[in-house]
Amino acid sequence: MTRQPLLEIENLRVGFKVYGGELHVLDGVDFVVNKGEKVGLVGETGCGKTTTMKAILRILPQPPGFIESGVIRFHGRDLMQVKDREMRHIRGQGISMIFQDPTAALNPVFTIGQQLEPVIKYASPENRRLPRKVIRQKAIQALRDVSLADPERLLKAYPVQLSGGMRQRVCIGMALATNPELLIADEPGTSLDVTIQDQVLRLLHQLVEERDSSVILITHTLGIVRQMTDRLYVMYAGNMVETAPTRRIFTNPLHPYTQGLMDAVPKLTGGGVAHGIPGRIPDYLHPPTGCRFHPRCPHAMDICRQKKPSFYTVEEAHQVACFLYDTSSGADSAPARKEALA
Amino acid sequence: MKLLPFIGKRAFHAIFVLLGLSIVIFVIARVMPGDPARVAVGAHAPDWVVQDIREQMHLDEPLVVQYFYWLRDALHGDFGVSLVTRRDVAQDIIEFFPASLELALFALLISAGLGITLGTLSAWHKDKFVDNLVRVLSYMGVVTPSFVFAILFLLLFGYLLHWFPTLGRLSEDVARPPTVTGFMTVDSLLAGDMVAFWDALKHLVLPALALAMGSMAQEARITRASMSENLNKDYIAASRAFGIPERYVMGRFLLKPSLIPTISIIGLDFAANFSNAFLVELIFVWPGLSRYGMNAILRKDLNAISAVILVLGVVFIIVNIIVDITVAKLDPRIGLRSARSE
Ligand SMILES: Nc1ncnc2c1ncn2[C@@H]1O[C@H](COP(=O)(O)OP(=O)(O)OP(=O)(O)O)[C@@H](O)[C@H]1O
Ligand code: SF4
Ligand SMILES: [Mg+2]
User: Fold this and answer.
1) pTM to 2 decimals?
2) What tens digit of pLDDT does each residue of B10-28 get?
3) Residues spanned by CATH 1.10.3720 within chain B?
4) Atom of ligand 2 at shortest distance to CA of A292?
5) What domains appear along chain A, each with residue ranges and CATH number?
């Protein structure tokens, strides 16, 4: 089955200027989401998941952030080249995002209605001409869609007056109010306690199924990934290191980092990923040369310190960025090493 | 937020603040070196005249008794007779107070309007030319005392270019409108006298501008700081991600939270401009309260000093209440808290 790509990222490099130098965070990210596909994205904290998503929507804080290179295509259009006006139309109806921290994503000095209504109003040229009353009705419906009780009253409430779970639902409702083709969900529910998180995720799952939009779901909770996504990306220190159909990655992880991640699964209860691998994510001021995972990798070779591995296709739809799977360079004995790994 | 109980509570507090202030004023006035009665009648008056005055002013009674006499009179709006001008102090205040208030209010309009505009431009073009220019100028504005601006403007726009008058509140050949509010601009408008209005307005420009420079610089800096901080907040990124137009995001979602710190500063600046304007008032021969108060201090005119300080105290308290109400109205986090603590 050949599917049409909806979003393609090639070799995206993003840095941050900080006191003392430049953080080289995204180190050539390659990433694809096909139409209708639900893609998971996992990786330990600080690996650049949110940064990648913000780059897609062109909402990176600049400064300090800056894009060094890369191409981001949505429906084949290069998002970095499109005019601001056009980008505005892509945002909302094309791509929308549920932010990681619902408290930070809601403006503290405006009511929910004052924030939600413009989202609906500016979603499309047609909506802009709608009378206020109709927009309000749509806002009420958006809140009802995320199972919030008493939406009329909620519209008049300020974020401080809501519980964490309600804020998260409001954020989901806002992101879905524009009926986006591609929904980015950045760790929804992480800030909530486990039962409420579970409710919120189940709700999100159901809403996404109903609409059959494409989804990028970032999460630390691998159980959710398994339930909700078709394909999974594993990210490490600013690189996508492996992607495959979700079930495949769970049964047959190839990248040493992914393997460590899966080993750690039983210990995962919503906290940090990859306690199974010794070491920490590298310092972005002076990242390791070559494969950024080499200081922590049990299989590191000489070449790993010199060259950065690109994606090698191991099987259809299973790609891994690791020299262990480099079958192209003839003299190499990659298959043998692969066996050694198994 | 319920406005009335809030104001009521603050007014209740204010009574105690004012009582405390009145005690301080009274004590300071009475312990100043020199015999107020002697100062009042002059060095060459015979002793029995001095004694007469002493009795009139109850200066021979214990301090506590003197205070209650003084307080009783003050509550009746009777601050006694100026020991120097022999005029009723209350009469003096009524004459000079509106002139200062009009000047300070005009300076507030200029400084808030320009300060917020410059700060906003600066934040939008952070680290670009506009920002650097505003930063240099506002730094100069903060470190330069207002009397320097006053002299500069007087020489440049007054004597050299003849753009604006430099003396008093109204030209000599313009008939003074009947006093209603004491504000020359308002009174001339009330009288329908446009000639007087424009003349009064022109007289206001230079002293108000001189007074406004420092606060404008301060307000520009605060606005820039809070705005460029908020510019990187997730709620701004979120509004953009939903496709809301940039001018809406900037003019509403960014502006309102960013203005809250600025408004507190505007209040402080206004109160400071009101009480510290004596050099500017002196330079432009503005018949204001600051100049009156300064003269009173130089001449040990006790009754006048006490009245001026008390009036300034009331102004400070009222400004504070207005600032608190405005901030609570703008920021529901504060508004709700103060409503809950009722
Ligand atoms: N505004 C910023 N200023 C400076 N550095 C930043 C900024 N935003 C991100 N970074 C850097 O980029 C790195 C990646 O951040 P990002 O938020 O993308 O991580 P993440 O994968 O989303 O992590 P988490 O799971 O904790 O959300 C951080 O470690 C940080 O060093
Ligand atoms: S490329 Fe080398 S260092 Fe990187 S994961 Fe593979 S074996 Fe380890
Ligand atoms: Mg993140």
Assistant:
1) 0.82
2) 788 888 888 888 888 878 7
3) 99-290
4) 4
5) 5-235 (3.40.50.300), 268-341 (no CATH)
